[in-house]
Amino acid sequence: MEGRDETPRLLVNGALGRLAKWLRILGFDTEEARLKSPPEPGARILITKNRALFEGYSGHAVLVRHDLFRDQVRQVAKELGLSADPKMLFTRCTLCNLTLERVARDDAAGQVPEYVWLTSKEFNRCPKCGRMYWKGTHGARVLDELEEMGII
Ligand SMILES: [Zn+2]
């Protein structure tokens, strides 16, 4: 088993896209899959609503019991002991799951709306899809939401 202090790596199965997106916002390495049978036990924790997969998986798994994504995030965070670490928040592309790369302010010019460039100091980019992220992209709203979920 992995040590408790290691950041868990996650594998979200099925139609749980919003849950996966929120786990990435929190900074967790979260892959998505559409599994028909239990995967080989690996380093990832399986997160699924499918009871057969959950019961058939010999590794660490979470059976999602809720339909609403807020309840799902809350349940997974609680069962896995995840919390919002400011150092991890907004470090990962919510679509591709890759760690964002810092972009120099000059290089960000023209890649983000002008008011954003003028008012922001830090810019990050997904190395795969090229999406730009900056502090405040959805910062305040996301933090409110996480507070609502009881994760902050
Ligand atoms: Zn991306």
Report on this model:
The chain has 152 residues and is α/β, with parallel strands linked by helices. The protein has helices at 17-25, 51-56, 69-80, 105-108, 114-119, 139-148, and strands at residues 9-13, 30-33, 44-48, 61-63, 101-103, 123-125, 132-134. It folds into 2 domains: 9-80, Rossmann fold, CATH 3.40.50; 101-136, no CATH class. Helix 1 packs across helix 3. It binds zinc ion. Zinc ion binds next to loops.
Features:
7 strands; binds zinc ion; three-stranded antiparallel sheet; about 150 residues; about 30% helix; Rossmann fold; elongated; four-stranded parallel sheet
Task: Present the secondary structure layout.
Elements: E1 9-13, H1 17-25, E2 30-33, E3 44-48, H2 51-56, E4 61-63, H3 69-80, E5 101-103, H4 105-108, H5 114-119, E6 123-125, E7 132-134, H6 139-148
Parallel strand pairs: 1-2, 1-3, 3-4
Antiparallel strand pairs: 5-6, 6-7
Helix pairs in contact: 1-3
Q: Unreliable runs, pLDDT <50, ≥5 residues? A: none
The CATH topology of the largest domain turns out to be: Rossmann fold
Largest sheet: 4 strands, parallel
Major sheet: arrangement of strands = 2-1-3-4
Whole-number tally of structural domains: 2
Q: Give the C-level CATH assignment of the largest domain.
A: Alpha Beta
Strand content: 15-25%
Using only CA atoms, what is the Rg? 17 Å
Shape: elongated
* Secondary structure tally: strands: 7
- Architecture per CATH nomenclature, i.e. the level-2 architecture of the largest domain: 3-Layer(aba) Sandwich
- Rounded to the nearest angstrom, the distance between the terminal CA atoms is 27 Å
User: Helical stretch count?
Assistant: 6
Ions and ligands: zinc ion
In N-to-C order, the SSE pattern is EHEEHEHEHHEEH
Indicate the structural class. alpha/beta
Average pLDDT value?
A: 91
> Helical residue percent?
25-40%
